[in-house]
User: What shape does this take?
Amino acid sequence: MRLRILCLTPWFPNAPGMREGNYIYDSVVAVRAEDVSVNVLLARAWKPWPQTEPTYSSFLPDLELQLLRYPSIPRDFFSGLSNRMRFVALLNRVVSYGIRHKVQLIHAQTEAFAEVASAAAQVLGIPSVVTIHGINTSHRYLGTTGQRAYFRRALRACDNVVLVGEPIREFFAEIAGADTNFTVIHNGYSLLPISRRTKILVNPEIHFVSVSNLHEGKGIDLTLAALVRLRASGIKNWTYTIVGDGDQRNAL
Assistant: This one.
């Protein structure tokens, strides 16, 4: 019997090549290639302006996807209230979907869905996993006492918490108070066929560009360190442009 996974995510592309949620799409496609059944619940905060329902049949005809809306207060104001509204709006629908499709595992994307994923999984009698891809730098979201306590409970309730890097594990281990259910799994990538690979550093000149908020955890410092090593090894046919601003600008 094929394992049936429900992916609960706030991001997913609605056309080939779209930027938002491509890494979620790639992970779903990769898992499905291993003969695992994956369907997607795309949960997004409701907004007062008109919404366009995304369509997916043009490039994923066999993927079942359902769009859910939940109320939320913008810019992380009154985060505790938003947490509660999100939970109430989504729990029964996630449980109903799980029953209807005989889901065997709930995989939530981001810590924001950890609470509803673990609660729904407990009702269904199945495991829950949450993957955390980064660190939200808003103090109202992760920095207040109430929010840290909320995420501590939510993360501890999940059977496993997947972090895409060691710095993220350290950050959330402090919030959770323990990391016994944490696993670091780095982001995957697909190699191009050998016939399509090119040795980019033998080209006359290479231009590297980063577009990012200049905050801790974005990895610009790692790129700079790597380029220093390139230059020290004699590879100097490159330029690097950083586009962005933030509290790490002077340090970088």
The chain has seven helices and nine strands. The longest strand covers residues 37-45. The beta strands are 4-9, 37-45, 65-70, 105-109, 128-132, 160-163, 182-184, 206-211, 238-243.
